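Worked problem 6 (solution included).
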Amino acid sequence: LDLKATAMKANNLEYNPKKFQALILRIKDPRTTALVFASGKMVIMGAKSETDARNSSKRFAEILRKTGTKVSPTNFKIHNVVGCADVKFRINLEQLYVEHQIYCTYDPEAFPGLTYRMTTPYDVVILVFHSGKVVLTKGKTREQVHGAFERMYPVLERFKDRTLTATVGK
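Solution. The predicted structure is:
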């Protein structure tokens, strides 16, 4: 696929090969972004559901067809489902790390979150922040991400930060 020639034929395509070797397309409904590589592969990001991802792929294919590019989307596959949650309590990351070192990496000077690599029953990566915010990634399905969170929640509860936080008043 000639990315430069394709980018010249439409004003809603971004292509800057010095920064990134893919065409970047964005649509507003559903709000998604596609990366199109010279190999012809397309990666869609930002979809809130599988239906949105499929509809986006069709819309992106339409945009590319209008530039004269022959497109026939095949082998649609979801590779990464991401979920976010807030457990509504602060988490003692240091203690969680000490007791779960074989699953975790934690270096607060490099990154403020703890990375927890769950391997069973789901191969899901969980970013845990002191604030109680949690990001689950690398799931293959929504059910895997939900199941991983349900399995992780009792662990997080065990490491609830019970220290009082001083508040600065007026």
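Discussion: Strands lie at 13-14, 23-28, 31-36, 42-45, 81-86, 104-105, 114-118, 124-128, 133-139.
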